[in-house]
Design a protein that fits this description.
Elements: E1 2-11, E2 15-25, E3 30-34, H1 41-48, E4 56-61, E5 64-65, H2 74-83, E6 84-87, H3 91-94, H4 100-110, H5 115-128, H6 144-156, E7 162-166, H7 174-189, E8 193-198, H8 201-207, E9 210-214, E10 220-225, H9 226-230, H10 233-238, E11 243-249, E12 252-258, E13 264-265
Parallel strand pairs: 3-8, 3-9, 6-7, 7-8
Antiparallel strand pairs: 1-2, 1-4, 4-5, 9-10, 11-12, 12-13
Length: 266
């Protein structure tokens, strides 16, 4: 479904964000791009969402190149936008309509659905996300977790084949994190391809996702399944996803690997 070959990207043609990255993601995959802050995870996801375009290399979606010129063609633009949904890390970037209902209606109406059908679809998603009571609420009056659900809902009303989620659990309380995890798994079971960018190793573990590890040099350090990647402590240390913690007992120094997300081994 998704094939990227030797893509690179630099901001303002001088600040490297990605360097020679190649990945392949099949339909119905659960796939995680992990790496430390600044490694290029969000940039890669924005390229997959057709929001940025690589300086070098090629991105194919279902065999068709995703380029700035191709997305200017209405037929391909509609094809791509209906099949690929992007949920930003910061929900405030994504929400711009007066009410929650308006947010969920916006996408379907833009692609030509009749208002009644669009409303039926929006209500179905509101129920699925357990936010029916927020239907008429202005989005600026929502909590962080509520905004995340609405942002996700605004994408799900388009019924995309692929969901791109940038740091989906960032800033959420534990209950909302669990809800989101269960929803992601259910959507994947229903046939959606899930791609997340995250440094939350516990999320990657729970999803049993395929994984691409980005280095601090903005390259793919390694790809593999979640179990293999998450138990490769040397790799996780190298890419700054876990660190060695030193503490003292009775005048003696002790060290162990430490992660705020998954590992805490002595």
């Amino acid at each position: 479904m998704i094939e990227i070959s030797h893509i690179s990207y630099s901001y303002y043609k001088q600040f490297v964000a990605l360097r020679d990255v190649s990945l392949s993601i099949a339909p119905r995959d659960k796939f995680a791009v992990i790496g430390s802050n600044g490694s290029g995870k969000s940039t890669l996801l924005q390229i997959l969402g057709g929001l940025l375009f690589p300086s070098q290399g090629e991105y194919l979606f279902q065999g068709t190149p995703v380029t700035e010129d191709n997305l200017k063609e209405k037929k391909f633009l509609r094809f791509f936008r209906q099949r690929v949904g992007y949920v930003f890390q910061d929900s405030d970037i994504q929400l711009f309509c007066p009410t929650v209902a308006d947010e969920l209606l916006f996408g379907p109406l833009q692609v030509g659905l009749m208002r009644e059908e669009a409303m039926d679809r929006a209500m179905e998603i509101l129920k699925m996300l357990k936010i029916e009571n927020l239907k008429d609420r202005p989005t600026y009056m929502l909590s962080g977790g509520e905004k995340k659900r609405v942002a996700l809902g605004s994408v799900l009303t388009m019924n995309p084949d692929v969901l791109l989620l940038d740091e989906p659990t960032n800033g959420l309380d534990p209950r909302t994190q669990v809800f989101l995890l269960e929803l992601i798994l259910a959507l994947n079971e229903a046939g959606k391809t899930i791609v997340i960018a995250t440094h939350d190793l516990s999320l990657v573990s729970e999803l049993h996702a395929g994984v691409a590890v980005l280095s601090e040099g903005h390259e793919v350090e390694k790809t593999g399944n979640a179990d293999d990647i998450l138990h490769d402590e040397e790799l996780l240390l190298k890419v700054n996803l876990i660190h060695e913690h030193v503490h003292y007992h009775d005048g003696h120094a002790h060290s162990h690997l430490h992660s705020h997300y998954l590992f805490h081994k002595h």
